């Protein structure tokens, strides 16, 4: 699901970071337009990544009502009907109130009237059936300050026949920044809630508890204290989590008093309602934290670009000085890389073996998860129940969708590790001995012509990364240029499978009501048929791309050195007067770039100190 543009949660270092990025891009423009463009991309990215907050809890705990209160829209999300299995509602920032639905007819999303949200996202209260069974999720946007840097995600209640809702919710938490756990002020945590919460901290770091409807239950403090005792005993990692007692009803009354001009009474009632305290916590602990991570990444990117350009300018200075040692070192480096290239076949064999092992591991994990789902469904069939045959197909789909998402996450992590390992092997010195150590400056050489790099596409980007910054940059390029597209391949295959097959499976199973076990076997068979080829395709794509990236990296690095050597020889033949002028111009650029690099390093230190302060506060 997409996140709209937004700000940086009011972080105190947002403005200095934005100014640094603008100044850096401006300084790089006359030297390296591609590097300047990458810095501007980082600046734009600061406005396009929101912190995800998944709202979880048992059915009828007031999750939707809480979101409505947080955004001051009492009728925004449906509160009198259950959210359908597998359907998420995401509320984010936008210039105006609008809604979009993602379903089989419109996988990229299509607009719907906001007043129709319940029809697409909730079960029909009368029939308890989906009115639009092909819906995947609904996106809602509002011009609310709280949502500047936040996306609030409403999920189905975690209690269900096969625990499908819980698994879907846990899969959503894998990619969230925080969980908002909604519990009831009139009753203690149920055993199912405690068991679920014990698994939450494995998925997300920030967990906030919200005790709802405190206006209806005078003994809510005793309930809260008892809930804390239960967590300390059964989920001790959540024993110190923050709790926020709230009342959406009192918050709405406060808004009415404010509209009538009773400002003091409204302020007292708002303080009792607790909604504003929860909003502030979301700003400080979630949006502010996410903003910090985005700012740190942007500063690091700017500092990397500056250091690479500074290295290239310093190399140019050496060339202008007729440095004979540099010429010898460049030739030695070229010979070393020739040896590395000749050993590429061994590297490719190892890479292919890693992907074969990964395919085996992920197939095993998927089959184990599918066996667990089958066993749970079989137990439910034995137990029976009035609505078993009506609910079984949707619950199987929910559990399988969660399993697919979990394996997808494992795939992304494993490919990231393979990419990092591949980068380290590509940059290792393949020679058995070295008479003279290569000077440090040789480790960072000028980039190839940007137009040429652009012409060769993804491989050219990886080639540049290896040549300019070694292991770290290549790993980053592999992760962003290869892992992300492959994750899209897997996620796309999964989404297409569930959207296209959900109705077919449901109809087929309904027609075979007399044979629930046959339905289950049919479902498990289809899952085992669909997953292996999808996984094999994704792994083949990323393996081929990594091989191509490695080959282009080594070839491009050697070409870089040859071009640098040619530039050195041309500079040696140039007249002294022109060399003096060129040296002065380069020195001026180095001075300006050095000042920017120092600003970036200082800002990076300040962000690191903020992170330490945050950890101490937590």
From TrEMBL:
The keyword Membrane applies. The keyword Transmembrane helix applies. Residues 53-213 form the Dynamin N-terminal domain. It comes from the Bacteria. Residues 551-613 form a coiled coil. The chain crosses the membrane at residues 473-499. SUPFAM superfamilies: P-loop containing nucleoside triphosphate hydrolases. InterPro entries: Dynamin_N, P-loop_NTPase, TRAFAC_Dynamin-like_GTPase. Keywords: Coiled coil, Membrane, Transmembrane, Transmembrane helix. This is Dynamin. It comes from Catellatospora citrea.
